[in-house]
């Protein structure tokens, strides 16, 4: 019986630990760092609206599909799809989709660790009082100097990767619960305090309008980026949530839990945006600043309020913890897979995988300094170049990895997982795992997984191609 499988990697002590782990995975740099800067770059309200629609119609069904596939198979993503496909009389090649996902997770980790490193550096800088009474230009210059220094970035990137790898080597269960139970709620409290500060800036409504007003013609502009970010924010499309589902106890209700985690994650993103943008406008900073947005906005706020130093230190510690609990969920799927396949010790597998991610991450580090001029996919003046040194258009190395993972691989991974749950596993297996009591709610959920989410993903891809 498929429902009697046991995970060789252990399981969560209770439903509560799955919620913590999944929330820890979802809430991270995606909500606090990436969401606000993307809202800024893609012009505000239209992006937010599409993002919310994608979370509800696509992200949540994909998240349910991942969790239920994981829990039914109790194995790493690639093996999970393989056994379940064989059980349902389908081709074991489905596992390739999950395999691609696990590689995507490692690519994401490569740059995630670099940015996680920035938050470590800021713990020290805020603590030293570097931002006291700082000017808007001052914070910008500070960030500019940091990212111009490859060695400092490499050092922090190395430390961040080590912290994540040590946790994974010990097994995700150990330590995760203890740290997250206190720190996640605290992060939430600090964001609310920041929001309180934003309310006093006199520019709060400007922030609200920026985040929620939109003109319909803008909806198409950020369509694919917003969908990609919905996947990124919920940690779906690569098997992170699937592997956590594999450690979930049978009693827990997947549907209720998943919706809870997704709502919490979305709520944190919106709060982070609402806290940040009023400060951006009050300080006269540029909302479309890009990846530096959070790192110039918040130190400015902390530098100009009472108890700013203490609050700033605590805040960046919490951001680093949130990033750490997300990073481990990026590493775990491939580690679990290799442990299952090769019987090599968990510690060794973790060491080598994190070393590879670290190495690829150097490309992201250098994108901000010595390789700043290296541009890929340059489309300038009607001519297209795959690579050009010194072009003004095009993507840098970080841009390429980010584009390839968030806009292409995450949606494709999600497509693979919902189609798998909706069409390969079949209605009865899904009903058995989801344990939705109301038949109407189940029918709706299954309909979202079987039709709405896959068609939605395809429509967004198509709209992007024919735009
Ligand atoms: N969701 C995390 C964040 O918002 C990042 C993350 C963890 C992730 N696991 C993932 C993104 C899997 C995509 C896929 O910071």
Overall description:
It is a multi-pass membrane protein. It comes from Pseudomonas abietaniphila. One of its GO terms (cellular component) is membrane. There is one protein chain. With 467 residues, the protein is mostly helical. The chain contains 18 helices and 2 strands. It has a single domain (15-466), classed as Amino acid/polyamine transporter I (Up-down Bundle), CATH 1.20.1740. It has helices spanning 15-26, 29-41, 45-73, 77-87, 95-127, 136-148, 150-170, 173-200, 204-212, 223-234, 240-246, 254-282, 293-303, 308-342, 346-367, 397-425, 427-434, 439-465; strands at 374-380, 383-389. It has a two-stranded antiparallel sheet. A hairpin with a 2-residue loop joins strand 1 (374-380) and strand 2. Helix 3 (45-73) packs across helix 16. The chain is globular, with a radius of gyration of 21 Å. The chain starts with 14 loop residues before the first helix and ends with a helix. The structure holds tryptophan. The site of tryptophan has 18 residues, from helix 1, helix 2, helix 5, helix 10 and helix 14.
What are the main properties of this structure?
symport, mainly alpha, globular, binds tryptophan, Na/ntran_symport, 467 residues, Amino acid/polyamine transporter I, 3% strand, two-stranded antiparallel sheet, 2 strands
CATH architecture heading: Up-down Bundle
Given helix and strand content, the structural type is mainly alpha
Largest sheet: 2 strands, antiparallel
Number of domains: 1
Count of individual helical segments: 18
Question: In what range is the share of β-strand residues?
Answer: under 5%
End-to-end Cα distance, whole Å, is 48 Å
Number of strands: 2
Mean pLDDT: 93
Q: Unreliable stretches, pLDDT < 50, 5 or more residues? A: none
CATH topology annotation: Amino acid/polyamine transporter I
CATH class: Mainly Alpha
User: Order of strands across the widest beta sheet?
Assistant: 1-2
Alpha-carbon Rg, integer: 21 Å
Specify the helix fraction band. Answer: over 70%
Small molecules held by this entry? tryptophan
Q: How do the SSEs run, as a string of H and E?
A: HHHHHHHHHHHHHHHEEHHH
Shape: globular
Membrane topology: Multi-pass membrane protein
Pfam family, one: SNF
Subcellular location: Membrane
GO molecular function: symporter activity
């Amino acid at each position: 019986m498929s429902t009697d499988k046991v995970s060789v990697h252990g399981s969560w002590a209770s439903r509560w630990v799955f919620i913590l782990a999944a929330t820890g995975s979802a809430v991270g740099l995606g909500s606090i760092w990436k969401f606000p800067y993307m809202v800024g770059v893609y012009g505000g309200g239209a992006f937010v609206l599409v993002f919310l629609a994608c979370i509800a119609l696509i992200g949540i069904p994909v998240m349910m599909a991942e969790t239920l596939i994981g829990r039914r198979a109790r194995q790493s993503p690639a093996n999970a799809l393989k056994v379940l496909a064989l059980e349902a009389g389908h081709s074991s090649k489905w596992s390739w989709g999950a395999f691609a996902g696990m590689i995507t997770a490692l690519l994401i980790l490569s740059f995630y660790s670099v940015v996680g490193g920035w938050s470590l550096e800021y713990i020290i800088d805020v603590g030293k009082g570097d931002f006291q009474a700082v000017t808007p230009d001052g914070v910008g210059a500070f960030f500019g100097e940091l990212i111009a220094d490859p060695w400092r970035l490499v050092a922090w990137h190395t430390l961040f990767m080590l912290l994540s790898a040590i946790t994974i080597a010990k097994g995700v269960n150990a330590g995760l619960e203890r740290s997250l139970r206190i720190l996640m709620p605290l992060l939430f409290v600090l964001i609310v305090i920041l929001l309180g500060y934003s309310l006093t800036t006199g520019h709060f409504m400007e922030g609200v309008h920026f985040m929620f007003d939109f003109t319909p013609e803008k909806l198409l502009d950020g369509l694919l980026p917003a969908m990609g970010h919905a996947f990124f924010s919920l940690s779906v499309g690569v098997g992170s949530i699937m592997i956590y589902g594999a450690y979930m106890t049978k009693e827990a209700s997947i549907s209720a839990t998943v919706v809870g985690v997704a709502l919490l994650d979305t709520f944190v993103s919106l709060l982070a945006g609402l806290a940040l943008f009023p400060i951006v406008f009050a300080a006269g900073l540029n909302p479309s600043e890009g990846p530096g947005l959070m790192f110039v906005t918040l130190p400015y706020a902390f530098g100009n309020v009472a108890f700013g130093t203490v609050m700033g230190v605590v805040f960046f510690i919490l951001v680093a913890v949130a990033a750490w609990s997300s990073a481990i969920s990026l590493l775990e799927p491939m580690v679990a897979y290799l442990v299952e396949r090769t019987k090599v010790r968990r510690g060794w597998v973790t060491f080598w995988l994190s070393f590879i991610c670290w190495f690829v991450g150097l490309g992201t580090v250098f994108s901000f300094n010595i390789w700043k001029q290296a541009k890929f996919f340059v489309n300038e003046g009607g001519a297209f170049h795959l690579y050009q040194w010194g072009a003004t258009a095009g993507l840098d190395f970080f841009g390429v990895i980010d584009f390839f993972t968030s806009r292409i691989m995450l949606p494709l991974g999600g497509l693979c997982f919902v189609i798998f749950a909706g069409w390969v596993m079949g209605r009865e297996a899904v009903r058995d795992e989801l344990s939705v009591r109301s038949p109407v709610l189940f029918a709706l959920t299954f309909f979202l997984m079987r039709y709405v989410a896959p068609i939605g993903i395809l429509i967004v891809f198509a709209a992007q191609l024919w735009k």
